[in-house]
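In the design runs reported in the main text, the only information available to the sequence generator was the tokenized backbone. The following block is the verbatim input for one such run; it is reproduced so that readers can re-run the procedure and compare outputs position by position.
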């Protein structure tokens, strides 16, 4: 006899994988369902469908699944939308990578121009502190008068 923990694990795995339950798992000596009952259930099973929102339609068009929003049927399989969303994520990541590279080159170019003008953060900081000291001295002078 199998331990209860192992047996419940087998039941859980069978349920998750959509496999038939092991014999005796249905309880009370019941036999498995007849093949005709299984076929009848499958015949009446509706394929899972999803009504896409406007944003979903834009994603489907942007990823190239459909040419125009008017071509999108009222209900689509969720797998189609999942694939389109994943493709859109990848495209968005590529766009962000490209923009980051462009921004890096822009920063390098502006830093080279600033270096040519002999500007640096250190000189800006020293000038700002000198201005503050001067303002503090003028404020102290006006208080004493």
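Verbatim output:
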């Amino acid at each position: 006899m199998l331990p209860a923990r192992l047996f419940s694990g087998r039941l859980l795995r069978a349920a998750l994988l959509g496999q038939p339950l092991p014999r005796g798992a249905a309880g009370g000596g019941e036999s498995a369902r007849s093949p005709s009952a299984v076929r009848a259930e499958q015949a009446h099973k509706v394929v899972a469908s999803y009504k896409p929102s406007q944003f979903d339609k834009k994603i489907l068009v942007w990823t190239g699944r459909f040419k125009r929003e008017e071509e999108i049927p009222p209900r689509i399989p969720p797998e189609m939308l999942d694939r389109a969303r994943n493709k859109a994520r990848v495209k968005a990541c590529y766009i962000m990578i490209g923009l980051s590279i462009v921004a890096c080159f822009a920063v390098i170019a502006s830093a080279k121009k600033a270096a040519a003008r002999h500007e640096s953060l250190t000189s800006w900081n020293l000038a700002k502190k000198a201005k503050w000291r001067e303002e503090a001295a003028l404020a102290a002078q006006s208080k004493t008068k």
